[in-house]
Design goal:
This protein has 17 helices and 12 strands.
C-alpha cells in the first residue's frame, strides 16, 4: 500500500532508458509509492507510463551539452517538484542526473538519489572532460546518496574525488535493475521462432554465430569488432556476426571503413534495433561485447541468462559479471587482435567453450535475479526514509 504523500519520481534523459534499463521496477515500486516517470519524448514516455501503470511527466532533455536547454529543463522540473512535493527523486543517466539533482535540491526534495551506470567522461579528454567531471561533482553534491552500479565505477569515483565515500553505496552485487531470468531464458524461444530468424538472416545449422547487442558507436568497440571479423570471415566461411542496435551518427559515428564493411560483408548481419532480442540471442553461440566503458551492462546479463558465454573487455561491470575462463573470456580494450584470438578460442577449443557455456546461465541466476535487486532498492528507499525521519526528529 502507498504511504501518505510518499511520491517517488524516477527520471532518465530519454524514455528508452526507462523502458530497457528500468523495465519492471516502476510498476513494482508503484505498490509502495505513488510513482511518476519523467523523461523527454512525450509520446514515447506516455506509452511507457501505460505499460508500467505509472504517471508520467515530460521534460525535453538532450544527451548533448546544451546549457541553455538544460537550464530551462531545471526550471520546469523545479516548478513540477514544488507542486508535487515528492519524498524521493531517483535519477539515472548523466544528463537527467544533473538536471534532477539540482532541481530536487532547489525544490527541497528530502531524498535525492542518483544511480551511476556509466561515465562518458572516461573516454573524453581535454576541456570537455573537465566540464563533464565538474558536472558529475555537482550532481553528487546535490544528491543525498549516489549509487554506482559496479565496483569499478565506485573505485573510479573515489579515486577521482567526485564525492566522499560515505555518500556512495553499491546495491546488491551491482546492476541497476538485475535480470528477469524467467523472461531471459532459452526455454522462452521456441524452435520455430529460431528457425524463422535463421531463415530470415540466411544462417545455416553449421554456422558459428556471434552476436553484439548495443549502440553501434565507437566507444562500444564496434570499429575493432568489425575489423576483427573482416579478417575472421575471410578465413572461416561459416562464421557469422549479428549486430543488434541503433547507430548514433550524431554522437559517436563509426569509421567510414567500418560502415562500408558492415554493408559489404555478407557474414556481418546488421538487424538494427529490436524490441525483443531473445530470438537473436537464442540462435547465437556467444556474445562479443568489446566496449570501452560501461556501468553494469544489461546485455551481458541477458546473454548469460540465455546460456551464452561472453567475450568482454576488461572494464568495470563487464569484469564483474564475467569471470575469465569460467563464463566468458576477458580481453584488453581497443584491441582487434584480442577479439580475433578470443573468437578463435571459442570456436576451436571445444572443451573451453563447453565449460563457458555450461556455467553461463547459472552464474547470472545465482547473482543477479531481478526481484532481488528490486527488493534491495526498496529496502534502500525505506532506509533513506528512516534517516530523514530521524533527522527531522532531532531538529524538532
Amino acid at each position: 500500500m502507498n504511504s501518505i504523500n510518499s511520491k517517488l519520481i524516477r527520471i532518465t534523459t530519454v524514455p528508452i532508458s526507462l523502458d530497457k534499463l528500468l523495465e519492471g521496477p516502476l510498476k513494482y515500486m508503484n505498490s509502495f509509492y505513488n510513482v511518476t516517470a519523467i523523461s523527454s519524448e512525450k509520446e514515447n514516455l506516455k506509452n511507457i507510463g501505460i505499460k508500467e501503470n505509472v504517471q508520467t511527466f515530460s521534460i525535453e532533455m538532450s544527451r548533448k551539452i546544451t546549457p541553455i536547454l538544460d537550464l530551462i529543463a531545471v526550471f520546469k522540473l523545479v516548478l513540477f517538484l514544488i507542486k508535487e512535493k515528492p519524498l524521493i527523486v531517483h535519477s539515472h543517466t548523466p544528463k537527467a542526473g544533473i538536471i534532477a539533482m539540482i532541481a530536487s535540491k532547489l525544490a527541497g526534495v528530502p531524498i535525492r538519489l542518483h544511480t551511476v551506470a556509466g561515465l562518458p567522461l572516461m573516454e573524453t579528454k581535454g576541456l570537455k572532460r573537465k566540464v563533464l567531471e565538474n558536472v558529475e561533482k555537482l550532481t553528487y553534491s546535490c544528491a543525498s546518496k549516489v549509487y554506482p552500479n559496479s565496483k569499478g565505477l565506485y573505485d573510479f569515483i573515489v579515486t577521482n574525488n567526485f564525492t566522499k565515500p560515505s555518500k556512495l553505496k553499491i546495491i546488491g552485487n551491482g546492476s541497476s535493475n538485475g535480470i528477469n531470468t524467467d523472461y531471459f531464458s532459452p526455454d522462452e524461444v521456441s524452435q520455430l521462432q529460431q528457425e524463422i530468424v535463421r531463415s530470415k538472416l540466411g544462417i545455416h545449422a553449421e554456422d558459428f554465430v556471434f552476436i553484439f547487442v548495443g549502440r553501434l558507436v565507437g566507444d562500444k568497440g564496434i570499429n575493432e569488432l568489425v575489423q576483427a571479423f573482416k579478417k575472421l570471415t575471410n578465413k572461416k566461411a561459416n562464421l557469422k556476426l549479428i549486430l543488434v542496435g541503433m547507430e548514433e551518427k550524431h554522437l559517436d559515428p563509426l569509421h567510414i571503413a567500418t560502415q562500408d564493411e558492415i554493408i559489404a560483408n555478407e557474414n556481418i548481419l546488421f538487424v538494427g534495433f529490436q524490441k525483443d532480442i531473445r530470438p537473436y540471442l537464442a540462435i547465437s553461440k556467444a556474445l562479443v561485447f568489446p566496449s570501452y566503458r560501461e556501468g553494469f551492462p544489461n546485455v551481458v546479463l541477458q546473454a548469460g541468462a540465455m546460456g551464452l558465454p561472453s567475450i568482454v573487455t576488461d572494464i568495470n561491470g563487464c569484469n564483474e559479471i564475467i569471470i575469465d575462463q569460467k563464463n566468458g573470456i576477458i580481453i584488453p580494450v581497443k584491441n582487434s587482435v584480442a577479439i580475433e584470438n578470443a573468437v578463435d578460442r571459442m570456436i576451436n577449443e571445444k572443451g573451453l567453450f563447453n565449460t563457458l557455456q555450461s556455467n553461463a546461465r547459472e552464474m547470472i541466476t545465482s547473482r543477479y535475479e531481478q526481484k532481488v535487486i528490486w527488493e534491495a532498492i526498496l529496502k534502500e528507499y525505506k532506509h533513506e526514509e528512516q534517516v530523514f525521519i530521524n533527522e527531522n526528529k532531532k531538529n524538532v
